Amino acid sequence: MRDQIKVFHLDSAEWERSRALLTNEYTIREEALLPGIRTYYDTFDWRLFRKRLVLEKVKFQDKTELQFHSFDGQLVSDTLLSAEPGFVWDLPESSLREKLAPIVEMRRLLPLAEVSFHGSRFNVLNADEKTVARVLMRQRKAARPWESKLEEALPVSLEVVSIRGYEKEYSRIIYFVESHLPVGKVSASELATSLELVGRTPCDYSSKLRVDLEPGMAACEAVREIFRKLLDALLVNEKGTRLDLDSEFLHDFRVAIRRTRAALTQLKSVISPEIRNRFRPEFSWLGSLTGPGRDLDVSLLKMPEYRNRVPQSARDHLEPLTDFLVAEKADERKRLIAALDSERYLNLVTDWRAVLDDGPGTASDAPAAATPIKEVASKRIWKIYRRVLKMGTREVGPAEVEVLHRLRIECKKLRYMMEFFRTLYEPKELKGLIKILRRLQDNLGDFNDCEVQQVKLREFARAMMDRGGFPPETFMALGCLVERLEKCQTVELGRFEERFGDFSRPENQERFRSLFSSKRKRAEQH
């Protein structure tokens, strides 16, 4: 049976009075607690917090431990730590790492808040001078890890800990604490309180786009809200992209650009031609800058998979490829930062923000600007869906890579439109349709990834040959890897017919029709 622990909070000004009340009521042996620092970590998109999990680094003198537990304090796993947490694969091999990996994946663990603490442990003794309970009082201060001088006081933590065999004494002490000490019940966890004090809002970022729209909103106003959200997502990921904290910052930065370009193209009936013609080339330019870096990130993330695809004897020969990719990524990052520091980029985000804040006048010459947004959204989604059905039902053979590539792009447009306007439709029904679409996208994406990886690996091999100094065994391993990817692509091609068959089943077509087709078009179909 585990020790029972009940936690209370009290104001720091009540420390001495509470201590005096305890020592007057009970025979106490007081001991100083070791001072320590507790640092909380999560990913930029709050992957742990969203699952009600907490990761904290606890440091006492020369001992540092990483603890992984639930919101209610139930320990999941822990491990000793010798370096700052970063990526999950940099952690010591342990149960904690195994449990953390599928949640965190490729994201860096970032410090959110730091809590320093010190205090006393009061051992409550009986007549035989045996310890029957412990009362721990800790004074705590919260700070941002990167601004440790800016500290904010947390409430004093008072914990009553039971001792096995002395449950009655524990209950009596709980009653005394609640009746005589100026304590309050714990209404929030230390993590939540610390985040509030250092100015952090949990779950303030998600890569999933959600724009709250009303069906009757003017289309121009609804689309402006979508563009604002996308610009916010782009800017909030800019710092992490510049610092290269992890690959997902550039990924989400790039997705915000792609979604913006898709909206500019697919919703042109709502957007002023002048605005569209002005900004489409600029976002296209920005998107082209992010492509090479993202390709290198993907290749680096796939290195464990690449090793598993080649024979055991060839795996070590792929290590020079990693070194090459790291060097290329460093050069590409310099080029990207130079572009982000350019006047062209600054003008793009500044002018785009000004347009979005300008009001309805910017869409006055767009034909569907005043049309209710649900009407515009349904019409556009239905049109793209019909195009996807038409493209997918044509004969697709091994040589028609370009056909599947175009179909993948159309599916992506369809997904973007459905996600832009998700709040206009019945959530359960829309979620089901997105799930069906996602399965097809996964197949098309895997097929395309195999193709792109083959092309990129050949490009890398040529560049490595031109540079010189790489062993011939590495090029042999790369050739073997390309062959394995060709086979993988063939497998994905074989799956396409089944995946598209599921997507285009009559009952699924009817679900799309009932959700997005106009009454006139539904009548024409029957």
Protein traits:
globular, CHAD domain, Hypothetical Protein Pfu-838710-001, 3 domains
How does this structure look, described?
With 526 residues, the protein is an alpha+beta fold. The protein has helices at residues 15-25, 95-104, 167-180, 190-197, 219-236, 238-243, 247-266, 273-301, 303-309, 319-340, 343-356, 373-392, 401-420, 427-467, 472-503, 506-516, 519-525; strands at 5-10, 27-42, 53-60, 63-70, 75-80, 110-125, 131-144, 147-162, 184-185. The chain folds into three domains: 5-197, Hypothetical Protein Pfu-838710-001 (Beta Barrel); 211-371, CHAD domain, CATH 1.40.20.10; 372-526, CHAD domain. The chain is built from 17 helices and nine strands. The chain has a nine-stranded antiparallel beta sheet with strand order 5-4-3-2-6-7-8-1-9, with helices on both faces. A hairpin with a 4-residue loop joins strand 4 and strand 5 (75-80). Helix 12 (373-392) packs antiparallel against helix 13 (401-420), helix 12 (373-392) runs antiparallel to helix 16 (506-516) and helix 14 (427-467) runs antiparallel to helix 15 (472-503). The N and C termini lie far apart (67 Å). 28% of the residues are buried. The mean pLDDT is 91.
Structural class: alpha+beta
Low-confidence stretches: none
Order of helices and strands: EHEEEEHEEEHEHHHHHHHHHHHHHH
The portion of residues forming beta strands comes to: 15-25%
- Span between N and C termini? 67 Å
CATH superfamily of the largest domain: Hypothetical Protein Pfu-838710-001
CATH class of the largest domain: Mainly Beta
Number of helices: 17
CATH topology of the largest domain: Hypothetical Protein Pfu-838710-001
Largest sheet: 9 strands, antiparallel
**Helical residues, percent:** 55-70%
Mean pLDDT comes to 91
Count of the separate structural domains: 3
Lateral strand order in the biggest sheet: 5-4-3-2-6-7-8-1-9
- According to DSSP, the number of beta strands is 9
Query: Judging by the overall fold, what is the CATH architecture of the largest domain?
Result: Beta Barrel
